[in-house]
Amino acid sequence: MTAPPKTLPEVSVVVPTYNEVGNIAGIYESLAQTLAGRAWELVVVDDDSPDGTANAVRELGARHDNVRCIQRIQERGLCSAVHWGVQAAHGEVIVVMDGDLQHEPALIPQMLEALQAGNDIVSGSRFLEGAAEKGLSRRRRRLSDWGNKLTNRFLGTTLSDPLTGFFATSRRLFLKSIPMMQADGFKVFFDLVYHNRAVTIRELPFEFQRRRHGESKLDLYMLWLLACDIVSKISRGLLPPRLVSFVGVGLIGSIFHFAILYASMDLGAVFWVAQAIATVVAMVFNFTINNVLTFSDERLRGAAFYKGLLLYSLIASVGIVANVSTAQIAYMRLNGHTFIAATTGLVIDVIWRFVVSNRLIWGRSSLLRKPS
Ligand code: GDD
Ligand code: MN
């Protein structure tokens, strides 16, 4: 006996989640309401949220056969979560939306119509005429304005909301773009548009809702991550956004470094002592800022933060030996040219630190992550 043929979904709604357990049932309900009469599915990609979101999705899946959960245990990150969801989707049309009810499912039928009418990508805009943005604080709104200007300038577009997280396109177009997209980049929509600048894009206004449960994970870092993403794209992907961020933090750290270096020498310290003091202060600065900005996805907190700082100091002290001794040799060879000598030491140091700490402190083979 063969099973009755299944109807393939026409629309796959891909929802990345991190700690959204309180929102899952609500999303399903409103999708079921708006998409009644269509073949659709919900694909939730959860990064092993500690609040048990994945279990809630599986429970939902036990009751409805159009719900699936991808629980990712070894991966983190909004962009790559969306990519995974798209690769697992069955529908011809992909809709990407937040898992926190800030995006209104009621817009989806209009999005589908606009796709049908020949647009290649259709997005929900928070800022288009007719839109409302209850969910954005004033500060958030200002950050968004800056981000939008920067993004439009870079893309050569005039989108009202180039950083939206709510959009629809064909599975074909999305799959074709994935090899070019950067999984650890910041904005999926921005990335998709960047690689499809010749296609027709249509924005539709919607009402950005207040978050009902849980908290927003993308806020202050938005502009920083956006800038790193743009630099990465300018380098044609040669420099991954994370490395750009690490070097960026390092550059800011080196401003501190030079300030302390020159100040200590002014106070009478000999060059190698001044360079060593500056290196240590810059090291603590770099660790703390990288933990928040570069590795915000895998940020260490509490005890893990201090263990991380300790491990980082250990890794860095190897770098410091290489740094100070190279700098000292350069200093003597260059007849006391402080700036070039210090820079030579720093470059060696930064490369060593990124490669090793990226793996051992924050990365997948982190020595600090408890096996759960
Ligand atoms: N799988 C996975 N992994 N999901 C994540 C991760 C992650 O590392 N980080 C965040 N998410 C999920 C959240 O659970 C939520 O469903 C969605 O991604 C968006 O995260 P929010 O934390 O709700 O972001 P937001 O509301 O502050 O940001 C909004 O504005 C941005 C533009 O400024 C969203 O609409 C974004 O999509 C949008 O790009
Ligand atoms: Mn949100």
The number of domains: 2
For the largest beta sheet, what order do the strands appear in spatially?
3-2-1-4-7-5-8
* Chain oligomer state: single chain
List cofactors, ions and other ligands: guanosine-5'-diphosphate-alpha-D-mannose, manganese (II) ion
Distance between the termini: 43 Å
Shape: elongated
Helices, by number, come to: 12
* Sheet having the most strands: 7 strands, mixed
What fraction strand? 5-15%
Runs with pLDDT <50, length 5+? none
Which whole number gives the mean pLDDT? 89
According to CATH, what is the topology of the largest domain?
A: Spore Coat Polysaccharide Biosynthesis Protein SpsA, Chain A
Topology as a string of helices (H) and strands (E)? EHEHEHEHEEHEHHEEHHHHH
Radius of gyration: 24 Å
The secondary structure category is alpha/beta
The name of the CATH superfamily of the largest domain reads Spore Coat Polysaccharide Biosynthesis Protein SpsA, Chain A
Beta strand count: 9
Descriptive report:
This protein has 372 residues and is of the alpha/beta class. Strand 1 (11-17), helix 1 (24-34) and strand 2 (40-46) form a beta-alpha-beta unit. The strands form two sheets. It has a seven-stranded mixed sheet with strand order 3-2-1-4-7-5-8, with helices on both faces. Strands 6-9 form a two-stranded parallel sheet. The protein folds into two domains: 11-218, Spore Coat Polysaccharide Biosynthesis Protein SpsA, Chain A; 241-360. Helix 9 runs antiparallel to helix 10. It is built from twelve helices and nine strands. The structure holds guanosine-5'-diphosphate-alpha-D-mannose and manganese (II) ion. The site of manganese (II) ion (MN) has 5 residues, from loops.
